Amino acid sequence: MIIFPAIDLRGGKCVRLIQGDFDKETVYSDDPQATALKWQSMGAKFLHVVDLDGARKGSPQNIPAIKKILDAVNIPIEVGGGIRTLDDVEEILSLEVRRVILGSVAVENISLVEDAAKKFGDKIVVGIDARNGFVAVHGWEKSSAVKADELSKKIVAAGVKTIIYTDISKDGMLSGVNAEIFAELAKSSGAKIIASGGVKSLDDIRALKAAGIAGVIVGKAIYTGALDLKVAIDEAENNAY
User: Fold this and answer.
1) 212: left (phi over 0), alpha (psi -120 to 50) or beta
2) What is the mean pLDDT of residues 163-183?
3) Catalytic residues
4) DSSP alpha helices (H): ranges in 62-201?
C-alpha cells in the first residue's frame, strides 16, 4: 500500500481544512517546496497535491507553487483541483506531473473523463468526495444527488482504473477511518481505491492495508505529529499486497 502525504495549496501556502470548510483553515507552511522536501526525506514515494483555489474557482490557480514542488523533489506527484477541461489536463501534465486528478467534472461531464482516459491512460485518476454516500463538488461546497458507488461504476466504465475516495465527514478530523466503506467501493467498482479522510494512527494504516486498499492519503495526522510518516510508510510497505 502506498502512503501519499497531502499538500493542500491555498494562496500558495500549505494548509489543511476541516471537513473541506474554507473557513476552518490552518496554515502549516508558507513554503510548500520545503514541505514536499520534508515528506520526501521521510521516505514518501508519491505526493498528493490539491489546488484548493482551483477547486473553488474551476481552473488551476496554484501552478507556480506546483512548479516549485516539482523542482524540489525527485518523486512523482499527482495534482487535483479545478481541472475540468482537456486543456487543463494537458497544462498540468506538461509540468511533468505524474497523474492528474479529475473531480467535479466526473459528475458533470463523464464523457470528458472518458476522453481524458483514452488520451492519457493511467495518468488520469478520479477523485470522489462524498458525504453520507453522496458526491460533493466544486471544492466540496455543493452537494449532488449522485451516489458515490454509482459514480464509481461510471468512472471505471469510462476507462479509469484508480479512484481517490474521500470521506468528507472524516477529513481533517483525526477521528479514524472507516475502512469498510473503502473496501466496499473497491469491491463494487472494481477500481483501485486510494483512501482519504480521518487517518490518525497506525491502526488506520493497518486497517486499510488489511482491507486491500491500494493507497492512503495522509494529511493532518502527519502535520500535527499524531502519525510519524516514516513509521506509517514502513507499516504500509511491509508484507505489502
Assistant:
1) left
2) 82
3) 8, 129
4) 63-72, 86-93, 104-108, 110-120, 148-157, 179-189
Report d(CA 103, CA 84) in Å as an integer.
8
> Residue 240 has what pLDDT?
45
d(CA 65, CA 50): 11
Q: How confident is the model at residue 241 (pLDDT cuts 50, 70, 90)?
A: very low
Q: Which amino acid is at 7?
A: I
Cα–Cα distance measured from residue 153 to residue 188, given in angstroms and rounded to the nearest whole number: 8
Report, in this order, helix, strand and coil percent for the chain, each rounded to 5: 40, 30, 30
The DSSP bridge partners found for residue 135 are: 130
Distances (CA, A) of 146 to 81, 141, 143, 190: 19, 15, 9, 19
Helix axes 202-210, 229-237, angle to 10 degrees: 20
- Residue 227: phi and psi, rounded to 5, are -130, 130
Superfamily of 2-237 according to CATH: Aldolase class I (3.20.20.70)
- C-alpha–C-alpha distance, residues 204 and 226, integer Å: 12
Report the distance separating Cα 69 and Cα 66, nearest Å: 5
The number of residues in the chain equals 241
pLDDT digits (tens, 9 = 90+) for 92-143: 999 999 999 999 899 999 999 999 999 999 999 999 988 888 888 765 556 6
CA dihedral 197, 201, 207, 208 (to 10 degrees): 40
